[in-house]
Amino acid sequence: MSFPVGRVLRSAAGRTRTARLLGTLPTPAASTIPSRFRAPVTAGAAGFHTVPAARRQDGSNNNRTSAQTTTENKPTDEELASAAGSFARTDDSITVEYPPEEQLPSSEPVAGTDRAGAHVFPTLATFSLQGKVGVVTGGARGLGLVMGQGMVISGADLAIVDLNKEEATRQAQNIVDTFRNDHPDKKPPKVTAHYADVSDPASVEACIAEIVAEHGRIDNLVTSAGFTENFEAVAYPIDRMRKLWGVNVDGTYLFATSVARHLMGRNAKGSMVFIGSMSGAIVNVPQPQAPYNAAKAAVRHLASSLSVEWAGAGIRVNCISPGYMLTALTQKILDDKPDLKRQWTSLIPQGRMGAPEDLMGPVTFLLSDASSYVTGADLRVDGGYTVT
């Protein structure tokens, strides 16, 4: 997900609410229920409010005051017309270009996430990824890094794929060091770093061959490489749209098909998780991002289509659609714009944005045998955003 950084948006919490109009209640028709079955109606029981007798004054004065108050609070037709639809539209003035590689903030592995589960509370053995080799694209930062770490915590060896191999190499060592600190008595996982331009077929094939040479095989794939930009559709440069689709859609397709060929060649089962977005099912407001939304809708349906096509080969394909997540990049933006964060959280039923580690459990579940009868599913991890 992305966040508009072109300007600070008004906080939803600070908006002036338009008074809700209940309309005119119809006059009830004469009851058809026999009088002997009707409950007696006492003074003060009708309507929405009752007033204690001790506080009740002249009825005509009360009615006149109530009518005046209602008239004063009722918005005018002009006010209603100006507010109609205003919070359900995109704002073309919001323009955000994805930063270049050298400006992207680094991420850090999550420390201590597995201590309680490993040593205190038992869990189903089918959730384990022990003995598996997983690949995560876009794994040097943000969501990809943390999901890759979750795979390692669950027992897998890991191949981190990223456009920035130097950062991927650093993070691979960080993951191993974190594991050693948490489990000094256990053999550390094998975590390797690999370069790939996910939108380039030759680069993808070379990367897969390198991973197989390092690890011997591939069992699981998580396609996390992707980015978004905020532009109004009529002004979005076509070359940037092609790049966005190349990374988000082509990259997912190329890695998935390459890993599928590898699995089919081994006659082996496998599991893949495509990282989509809630934007593939809803339209985000107020930031305009039609190309990104369409790309993530494509990723979601690609997962469904391939799950059917590859079911006979024992390859499961599912999709995770995150909501607004606090990665290092988004945290940096929101630290400077607290009003923006308040606006987004006001639209999330759980009242908070997601943390990257909120995806550790879902991705482990979908990769593991615990979800052996789940394929073609889209798991939304959005705090309830898309159901309101």
Automatic annotation (TrEMBL):
Record keyword NADP present: yes
InterPro entries from the UniProt entry: NAD(P)-bd_dom_sf (IPR036291), Sc_DH/Rdtase_CS (IPR020904), SDR_fam (IPR002347)
Protein name per its UniProtKB record: Uncharacterized protein
Organism in which the protein naturally occurs: Parachaetomium inaequale
Assigned keywords, A-Z: NADP, Oxidoreductase
Family listed: Belongs to the short-chain dehydrogenases/reductases (SDR) family.
Any one GO MF annotation of this record: mannitol 2-dehydrogenase (NADP+) activity
TM region(s), chain numbering: none
Pfam families xrefs: adh_short_C2 (PF13561)
Stored Gene3D superfamilies: NAD(P)-binding Rossmann-like Domain
Alphabetized SUPFAM superfamilies for the sequence: NAD(P)-binding Rossmann-fold domains
Region (Disordered): 51-92
Domain of life: Eukaryota
Biological process per Gene Ontology, one example term: mannitol metabolic process
